[in-house]
Structure formats: C-alpha cells, structure tokens
Description:
- The chain is of the alpha+beta class.
- It has 20 helices and 13 strands.
- 55% of the residues lie in helices and 8% in strands.
Amino acid sequence: MFVLVGFALMRALVPGGRRFCRHDFWRVLLGSGLGVGVSSLAFLAWLQFGVPELALEAILLAVLVWVAWRSQECRLCTIPARPWSRLDYNIALTFALTATVAVIAFLRQTNSAPHGHWDAWAIHNLHARFLVDRAAWHDLFSPLIPFTHPDYPLLLPGFVASWWTLLGNQSTAVPAATAALFTFGTAGLLVSSLTMMRSPQQGLLAGLVLIAVPNFIAIGAGQIADVPLGWFLLAATVLLVADYPAAAGVAAGFAAWTKNDGAMLFVAIVIAWGLARQWTLRRLRDFGLGAFVPLAVMIWFKLTLAPVNPERSMANAWEYMTDASRYVTVALGFVRHVWAFGGLIVSPFLFLLAYAALMRSEKAYRGSVRATALTLVLAVCGYFAVYIFSVYDPLVGLIDSSLDRLLIQLWPTAVFLVFLAARSIEPGLRATHIAIERSPNMPALTRSTQIVLVLVLACLMFAFGAATVRFLQPPPSDSGTAVSTAPSDAGDLPVPGDYDGDGQPEVALFRASNGNWSIRNSSTGALTTVLWGGVGDVVVPGDYDGDHRSDVAVFRPSNGTWYIRSWQTGLDVGASLGMAGDVPVPADYDRDGKTDMAVFRPSTATWHIRNSSTGVITTVAYPVKVR
C-alpha cells in the first residue's frame, strides 16, 4: 500500500498525465520513500486518534489518484531521451557487478546482525516495539529509559510498527527490508535522476561511487536512521533541481520526521537555496505547503509527547562557545573522519574532488549546484556547532562514535552534486585536454585513450565495491599504530582476550593513566595500541557484536555508560546501563554468541542485563542481599 500511495503522491505533485511514461520508474523510486513517511503518519493517527490506518491510506490514495488523473502531461517527457553508447553499456555492466557485491555484503551483515547496529535495536526498533502495543505505547516516553532517546521522531519506528501490527509478529525481516529499501533506493534514485538530468554515464558512475563505499552499505545494513535521512535529503535536492518544489517540501519535511538532525537539514535547505537566489515566491510557497503536514506533526510530537533531551542542555553554552580547545578537538575530528571515511585506503571525498577537477564544470544547473553546495556547507557547520555545544563527555568519544554516520547522511547528496556539476566523460576529458598547454607535436587525446581512462576508472570503482565484502569480514589483526615494547606501570591491568579472532587469546594491558590498550598479536607478535578509556573507567572487553573478536570496551561508573569500539563495523558506540557503585558483569546471558552488557547493584542485590539481540533490559533479584 505504501508504494501505491507514494507513487500516487508523486504523480500528483510531479504530473505525468493519464498515461504511463518513461519517468514513472523515477517516480516509483521517489514514491517508495515518501510512502514510508505517509505510512508512519497514518499509523501515528491510528495510535493517537483511533483512525484506522488502512482506511486512511485508502482514502488518501483515492484522492491522489483523482488529482493525478486530472493533472497535465509530463513536462519531463518533452526533453528527448539521450541514447546509450557502447561506453554506457560497459559502465552499466561494471555498476551491475559492483551492485551485486554490495547486495551480498548487505545480506551478510543482515544475517550476522539481524537486529541491526546499536541505534537500531536500542532506539528505532525498540521504539517500534513500544508502538506495537497500543495500550501502553506512551511508555516509550518514560523518563526511566532516557538512553533510548525517546525524543527521536517516529518515521522509521512508525513504519516498522505498522507492518509488525499488520503481520501479527515482530519479524526482524521488516526493519531489514526497510533498511534495504533506503540503502539501494538511494542508489536507484541517484542513478535515475542523473541519467534524466545529465546522461547515462553520469548516473551510472555516480551510482558506482555511492555503493562502492563499504561504510555506506554497512551503516545501511545496520538499520539506523542515517541512510534514510540521507535519502530524504537527496530526494529533496533532486526535486528542487527538477523544479518540483511541493514534492521537495514533502521530502524535506519527512527528513525532519526521520531524525533530529533532519530538522537542521530542513533549515539548511531553506537558507541555502535562498542565499543562492533560487527561491521565487511560488517555489517557496509550494515548498512550504509540501512540508506543512510532516513538519507540523514533528512539531506537535516535540511539544506534546517527546521528553526534553538532557544532551540538548544549553546551561554551559557560553563556556563551551569560548573554549578554544573544543574547536580544535572538533576540527581535528572532522579532518580525521573525512580522511578515513568509507572504510577505504583513500577517502572517496578525494575521488570526488579529483573527478570534478578533471572533468570541469558544466554550465547547466549552475544555480542549483551553488544551492546544493551551500546546503552541504551549512549542514557541516550545523554538525560542527552541535559538537561544540554538546554536553557529552568525552567529546572525542562522541565524535568518534557519530561523525561517520553524519557524513553518511551527506554522502549521496555530495555525489549527486559533483556528477550534476561535472561534465560527462568524453566532453570533460576533451575540455581538460584543450586547457593543458602542450607542444604542437604532442598527440591528441584519442577516443581510445578516453575509453582506456574510463575503463581504469570503472575497474577502480569495482575494486572499491569488492572492498565491501572484505570490510565485513573480521580482519586478521588490528591496523593500529605499532609501538616498541616498554615496561609496564604499576597501575596497568591485564586484559587478555581474542582481539584478532584467530581463536587464541592475546596478551594485553590497559593503562588507566592515559587510556592506552597495548595488545600483543598472538599470530604475528606485533604490538599494537588503541586509545580508549581513562582514569576511573572499568575495563570490560568482550565480543559485543558476535564477530568472534574481543572488542575494546570500558564502563564509566560516573555516568553509567559503556563505551565499546567494534572491530566488525569500525563504529564506536556508547550505551547507558548502570550507575555509580554498580559492578559490571558482562557475559553472554542469552547464548546468542554476543556479550551482553550487565551490572550487579550491591545496594539492591539486583542484576540488570541488557539483551544484545533485542535491547530489552532484564532485572533479576539475587536471593541474598549484600550487607
């Protein structure tokens, strides 16, 4: 139903007449994502007001079909389709091979972690489990579980819960299928949009660059909201470039309904397109009308249901704003994560810069290019400001555990921007060749040379795609910085564990004075170091992600937070469980092959165990109270 509603919505806002046209596949890709948002709103209406969800969607579908039937002909069809060349088919084959590798990688990670990453099972999917129980769904906003971020908007939880309600069970296939829809839907939207606006070459190459980044597939398979948020940002940008502001407003409004970061991206779009002088009164009006419903629901949710997030406190705003060290820490964090982004040897952002410099810019869409670039710049500035004013301690831990996911939100739109602005392969190389000063005897850039360059580029992209499978396999050893053997301090703690997954435990030490883990690889004898934790932290290494490797982890009694660095995903997570005076007792309590976070509370003689598969916290009373 949600696909039909979304497609009808796109047919109404992006008119196509009474006949199907060659742009309807593009409308289906856009409608699938927008339909998810509509379905979540309909489910919330059922929860809050008792309006039957399917009846509401059926009425909306009928209205949209009527509007679409009366709409004008598709103006996109007046633009002649660009014929495919032999080079286009070669690039398409490479894209298909890379997409196959990406799908395999996605399925492997979904199979190994069916409940997703931390943000999935502890936030979005957990919220969905609350929403399924209509009699007690308001318990989601209880102050007793602030670590689940009950202030997060409900687009993903609402959609997943609606399907769970329809199916009558809480199958893990629903959030996994939703993650696949947005992950590969992003690639489809990117390819189809650039094929329509520019050329098949630009669309296919952009799709290659997008899905060949291992982190994009890994985070997408993790079932967290960052890839869907990136989809809505891309959809809003594409629709604004195509001059369909009402549909763009719907996408931007649903971005705000997906995650708290989406509200900032909505504001960035409005300001950026204004600074680029791309707004007219008509376009701004239509954009606002399109965004009205999802934006109004998000504001109502924040004012009436969502509790105040203590992490958004501005009590120390002036102190943070005037602390120069925070700016340095955040700036270095951005440089470090942009350089290491993607899980590749070289940052894919460098590839985008190189491609743009080599191909030169196209004259078409210059206003839209400026507006999109400003949107990304303002988004980065917004992320920077969030880190500056964050109350999270340590700040480096927050950056390391979240910045990669924030960059994933911008990655599809950044790829779209470059391939929208840059010339196609052959004209771009020809322009570059003419611009280079050369001697009269230097041979011209022949067509065969161009094709060779393109094939080299395609092979490079396929190699990047193959890295997705390698990225999801447990590496033989950590790639940390090798250090020379040094005598241990009196305060060092032994933390043995199988850190490289070879079935043999490693000799390891933790130095609390500087948070340094020194791990001697049992296979190679290499000594590696990892900085994680500090004074007052309790070391709790364990296999928290089920990859058969001990993860570096600490429990901080001062704030009851567990900080875990995962070898499998390359992501760092922080989870709240416990308080000062609790004793951490991690173990595989549910026998799923993963270490569960758990604490023993002597004051009440109770054990508090977080299930690694479901995120549910179980409290067990010990029979004898400790005095």
